[in-house]
Amino acid sequence: MRHEDPTSHSSAPSPPLLEIRGLDLDFGTPRGRVHALRNISLNVPAAQVVGIVGESGSGKSTLAYTVMGLLPQNAVVTAGNILFEGRDLLEMPSQTRRNLLGNRLSMIFQDPMTALNPVRTIEGQMIDIQHHEKISRSEKRSLAIQMLHRVGIPDPQSRMGGYPHHFSGGMRQRICIAMALLVKPALLIADEPTTALDATLEVQIIHLLKDLQKEIGCSVLFVSHHLGAVAELCDRVAVMYAGEVVEQGGVRDIFHNPAHPYTRALLECDPGRIRQKTRTLPTIRGEVPNLLGSKEGCIFQPRCPQAFGRCTQDTPIEYRIGVEQAARCHLLNEKGLVSR
Ligand SMILES: Nc1ncnc2c1ncn2[C@@H]1O[C@H](COP(=O)(O)OP(=O)(O)OP(=O)(O)O)[C@@H](O)[C@H]1O
Ligand code: NI
């Protein structure tokens, strides 16, 4: 008898794990509404790592926190959908959404102390995080030990009785990664997880994340302003500027064939490329615009070296460059590319 590959006759590609469509978000402030996210559309395919890059204030963390449902009180989503495993996170009851956290969705932060409770042992916290699992306490304990071992905590059995302050910053971040992945999430969201670490530790943590992501088969949304880390870790990249995704595509296309003048400027300023001994991004000329009030034309136009007449009047739509790459720039229309 011939056994057919069950996947062979499914002609439609599987839907992305996370699909963000037309997302707009404002923060209410005493000075007016800050338009922090504007018409964001972005997919995270299953088992892929998607990087989000952009200067400080471009909205990277806001986007990550919106997906997690961890926004401050003054945030208002004014348009869009966030489909996760086919269900809209913005429409579901808050209890259902909370149940996804630390289960299908988990997060690691820049400062590990954000996630760790300073007055509880690592063991207690790692057992608690598995509260969705129907297994005994001793099984949870041994899974925690295995995971701590996997992330490189030496002698985890005897050290897991310790408190967070007994560990170095790098070790604490490893513990956070262990906790976030212990629940075998479908999606891990990482907001600048290596920014507080020195360069050697950063490389180690990036490799660790990559290995674990492959083992677990989860997707990762990786927020960073460190382009080298993104190039190393990610399959796809979204470039954010002033609340918009101005360009997105496969990691090679974005780094080798950037289409948006902002992406090019960001790459030209990258300390990794200019081989300076600095890890802070040298600034692109001009300033990030303030996000109060409505804007006419392209958001990058005031700083763009290639701006022309149209850029001050119309907001550019997203033009397709290749199968996967797309950018919001009127120059692409001039080149005869079509919108997606
Ligand atoms: N609670 C808030 N209230 C008002 N404005 C906010 C709030 N949080 C963020 N913002 C504004 O939203 C914009 C996006 O901020 P966000 O922190 O998402 O940027 P980011 O790209 O993560 O920057 P960084 O690289 O510095 O972390 C900024 O203009 C910021 O000042
Ligand atoms: Ni941020």
TrEMBL record:
Residues 20-267 form the ABC transporter domain. GO terms for molecular function: ATP binding. Its main location: membrane. It holds the Pfam family oligo_HPY. Keywords: ATP-binding, Cell membrane, Ion transport, Membrane, Nucleotide-binding, Translocase, Transport. SMART domains: AAA (SM00382). It catalyses: Ni(2+)(out) + ATP + H2O = Ni(2+)(in) + ADP + phosphate + H(+). It comes from the Bacteria. It is an enzyme of class 7 (translocase). Its EC number is 7.2.2.11. It is found in: Cell inner membrane. It is a peripheral membrane protein. InterPro entries: AAA+_ATPase, ABC_Ni/Peptide_Import, ABC_transporter-like_ATP-bd, ABC_transporter-like_CS, Oligopep_ABC_C, P-loop_NTPase. CDD domains: ABC_NikE_OppD_transporters. The complex is composed of two ATP-binding proteins (NikD and NikE), two transmembrane proteins (NikB and NikC) and a solute-binding protein (NikA). NCBIfam families: oligo_HPY. PANTHER family: NICKEL ABC TRANSPORTER, ATP-BINDING PROTEIN, OLIGOPEPTIDE TRANSPORT ATP-BINDING PROTEIN APPD. Belongs to the ABC transporter superfamily. This is Nickel import system ATP-binding protein NikD.
